[in-house]
Amino acid sequence: MSHYTLNDITRPSGGFAMLAVDQREAMRLMFAAAGATTPVTDQHLTDFKVSATRILSPYASAVLVDNQFCYRQVVEQNAVSPGCATIVAADEFIPGNGIPVDSVVIDRSIDAQAVKRNGGKALKLLVLWRSDEDPQQRLEMVRAFNALCHDNGLVSIIEPVVRPPRRGDKFDREQAIIEAAKELGDSGADLYKVEMPLYGKGTQQALLTAAQRLHEQINMPWVILSSGVDEKLFPRAVRVAMQAGASGFLAGRAVWSSVVGLPDTDQMLRDISVPKLQRLGEIVDEMMARR
User: Residues in the active site (predicted)?
Assistant: First the structure.
């Protein structure tokens, strides 16, 4: 059986310039906030995801799609550019307490062999990290996910995202990102997808110091995501994170969020999002060349 490796989802430079379109109810909320037609239907989301995949994947080393809204359609419509790898989200989001993603489990409806047959190279798992929840449970879920990937020759990508504790109101996001990395940064996955420290804000030096602290805890290649980072600050965030030891990005919002709700979606993706993604890819190559 062939086993895919990280090289199958990188640019020739060895860096990662990966596009995410796997947002689910969060994307619906973005459309609603942009004043899109109400209600925002599943079809709205599917159409946007497939368009974004088709138009942007030629400029990405990989594209992350979700099973719920677009994986089947992306495969059927051959929307992924030949030079771009497909990553499938293997997480099932469970809503609760008034939020779209209150907890996460492995999506057991994902057929890893079918993913591979359809050209998929990797699976991704969101892991919610709360200081007052059982670390053992998180680690066991990650180990089960790694086994699912590796038994099927797929690359394993984990995405720890920190949340305030269930009880109490004290929450230091920056410290939580470090604690989550301490706990999961050596958990046997192939790639660690992480939130950018300081939301990408502040001076370059403060950002670099925070990213270096993070790097010290992660014992595998890592990339940053763009949720929570002002899209104007994201290119710098990629540069600084890579200076600290990251190997690129896996991001959606920084690339396409500004076109959500605009008319002529395809044209807007070409005019606005393609240049952003191209520029981010250049930054990744530039930083890899310095290593």
Answer: 193 (schiff-base intermediate with substrate)
pLDDT tens for each residue of 103-143:
999 999 999 999 999 999 999 999 999 999 999 999 999 99
- pLDDT over 70 percentage in the chain: 99
Which amino acid is residue 285, in one-letter code?
Answer: D
Per annotation, catalytic residue among 49, 121, 124, 193: 193
Is 49 an active-site residue?
no
Residue 175 backbone phi and psi in degrees, to 5: -65, -40
Instruction: Identify the band that residue 36 occupies on the pLDDT scale cut at 50, 70 and 90.
Output: low
Instruction: Tell me if 58 sits within 8 A of 84, measured CB to CB.
Output: yes
Percentage above 90 pLDDT, the chain: 97
CA distances from 144 to 33, 183, 197, 204, 238 (A): 37, 16, 28, 38, 30
Give which of 268, 221, 273 is closest to 248, Cα–Cα: 221
According to DSSP H, which parts of the chain are helical?
25-33, 42-56, 71-76, 112-117, 135-151, 173-184, 204-215, 234-244, 253-256, 265-268, 274-289
The answer to whether residue 176 is domain-embedded is yes
Task: Give residue for tokens 């929450």.
Answer: 171
Domain assignment present for 1:
no
